[in-house]
Design a protein that fits this description.
heterodimer, A: 332 residues, alpha/beta, Nucleotidyltransferase, domain 5, 2 domains, five-stranded mixed beta sheet, 10 helices, 41% helix, globular, B: 228 residues, 7 helices, binds zinc ion
């Protein structure tokens, strides 16, 4: 009996998303309503604007998801929802919706960690091989995780300042590119020469695998003021981001002995970074695992994936589960 | 419309859940002072109300929820939960304008000014006239205003006004400074939402019962990039 249907709900930032995942791994429906248009003018996500839009979208998004999979409300057997980290007001919309739906139908509920779910997005189309090493890089997080088992997660390193995706956005803005900055920088960098605009490398912090992108961002911005060509800055910036990600990830690989690296989160949609990781890993006889297309940025399929995994491991969340905008220490 | 009413109030510091019979009889009433904990406490409060009334989820026939004004987050918690239960149970959900429902909960004819604390000098407030028949009529439309300015405006009607809602507690000194103003109850309870919805439906005022949030204010727009 692998026909349990998990409804996943995600509202932690600027995407309202729902998905239905069957226990055998088949994704029956997945809808992501992006708010990028709404926040573009502000150059970033406005929490109250995001929360209002989540409330308007959550019902229609769930109904569309169920319709996609030919699923009725009464067919759902499990509800998984993002409890954090994220914007408090945004999280509460999804959490309130998910809890009340599960309660109405008397279904089990599992609250999941958004960052860990990004890593588990890779398991939508591949089997876990615990322990797995995962690098989650997005606009909100840059975390190096050791996935020890279905529920055990160890944080090996995290950004001490800006997240990698945030640095992409800020550098893009200083180059006069749009928001979000990742795709814009990637496409501009294709015509640039990274060696014509040198950027500093950020060494390892003593005894830690933490990241730092704020100095890199500032250096890229000042190159612009010194008159360097935008395409060269973009190319140099991407190369420097890769060097830092790779240095930490490869050290973590040597320390943990993991044979592959999961690269997930919105930044992992960057084709240049993916290629560099694939090449570097291949040289070491290791492999790269990325989430399926369309599941690197925020989505609810990854929430349902992790929720089902936690459910199978016996985890349940209580009705009084609250939102956790900042989850520290890490909980899966 | 048949079946029991589940009433949900999450727009102020007080979390309220009430169950009404199809005839409007109060079956259970749960109130908790839970500022900023509505998201965690709401479902347990609904479970408690059902337990007190000896009912299961399936016995809920429709839902009435306060759609504002009040705490923005609170409005969303209530509306999201109500819509999710509506979707889960396949039952209708009615969003109730909270200030209007407060005025409608008073039976004596006269002027009523429901007002909710909106931080600092401000209140979400409106003025209604309760008459012998029908729902109260609007005299000053709902808005966010400095409490003192609002009361100055109420004075121009030249009649006594009962001020009610949690702004009464917050701005008690200001209210007492106006001779025409009487202090009414500071907490209105969730049952009024279902009773209002029943009356609005009888009077074919279904437009008032949409589930669109009534924030009354545009959002503050300071950006903060978090994730992507
Ligand atoms: Zn994310």
């Amino acid at each position: 009996m692998n026909d349990l249907l998990c409804l996943g709900i995600e509202t932690s930032c600027d995407e309202t998303a729902a998905a239905v995942l069957r226990q055998d791994g088949r994704l029956l429906g997945s809808v992501v309503a992006s708010q990028i248009d709404l926040h573009e003018a502000f150059g970033g996500v406005v929490p109250e604007v995001a929360a209002r839009r989540h409330l308007e979208r959550i019902g229609p998004v769930v109904r569309e998801t169920l319709a996609q999979g030919g699923v009725r409300s009464e067919d759902v057997g499990l509800v998984a929802v993002t409890r954090g980290p994220g914007l408090a007001g945004a999280l509460m919309v999804g959490l309130s919706w998910a809890k009340a739906f599960a309660f109405a139908r008397q279904l089990p509920l599992v609250g999941v960690n958004h960052v860990v779910a990004h890593a588990h997005a890779a398991y939508l189309e591949a089997e876990p091989r615990y322990p797995d090493l995962a690098l989650v890089a997005s606009g909100g997080h840059t975390d190096l995780l050791l996935l020890a088992g279905p529920t055990g997660v160890q944080v090996l390193g995290r950004s001490r300042d800006d997240a990698a995706g945030e640095a992409f956005d800020k550098v893009a803005r200083s180059l006069g590119l749009g928001y979000p900055g990742g795709p814009a920088i990637e496409s501009l960098a294709r015509t640039g020469d990274p060696d014509r605009a040198r950027l500093p490398r950020v060494g390892l912090f003593q005894g830690s695998l933490d990241f730092s992108f704020s100095g890199l961002k500032t250096a890229a911005q000042s190159l612009r003021r010194q008159g360097a060509a935008p395409e060269d800055i973009a190319a140099a910036f991407q190369a420097a981001v890769f060097d830092q990600l790779w240095e930490r990830a490869s050290l973590a690989q040597r320390q943990t002995g993991c044979r592959r690296l999961i690269f997930a989160g919105g930044v992992s949609a960057n084709g240049y970074l993916r290629q560099r990781f694939a090449d570097a890993l291949r040289r070491e006889g290791l492999s790269l695992l990325v989430p399926p297309l369309g599941h690197t940025t925020d989505n609810a399929a990854m929430i349902a994936r992790l929720g089902l995994t936690m459910y199978e491991a016996g985890q349940r969340s209580p009705w009084d589960m609250g939102a956790e905008p900042v989850i520290h220490p890490f909980k899966p | 419309m048949s079946g029991n009413w589940l009433c949900i109030e999450t727009t102020g510091d007080l979390l309220g859940v009430a169950l009404l019979g199809a005839d409007g009889a109060l079956l259970a009433d749960v109130e908790q002072e839970a500022p900023r904990l509505h998201s965690a406490r709401l479902v347990p409060a609904i479970a408690e109300a059902l337990r007190l009334a000896g009912l299961s989820q399936a016995a809920v026939g429709q839902i009435a929820v306060d759609r504002g004004p009040g705490s923005y987050t609170g409005i969303r918690i209530g509306l999201a939960a109500a819509e999710a239960m509506g979707q889960g149970l396949g039952i209708p959900v009615f969003g109730v304008p909270g200030l209007w429902a407060s005025a409608a909960s008073r039976s004596l004819e006269g002027l009523y000014a429901p007002a909710l604390d909106a931080r600092r000098e401000d209140a979400f407030c409106a003025l209604y006239e309760v008459r012998r028949k029908g729902l109260p009529e609007e005299r000053i439309g709902p808005g966010m205003r400095p409490m003192r300015e609002f009361l100055e405006e109420c004075r121009s009607f030249g009649r006594p006004v009962e001020v009610m809602g949690d702004a009464v507690r917050r701005h008690e000194e200001i209210v007492r400074g106006f001779a025409f103003a009487r202090i009414g109850p500071s907490q209105m309870g969730a049952a009024r939402l279902g009773l209002f919805a029943m009356r609005a439906r009888e009077e074919a005022l279904d437009d008032a019962l949409s589930t669109a949030a009534l924030y009354l204010r545009p959002p503050a727009t300071a950006p903060r990039r978090l994730d992507g």
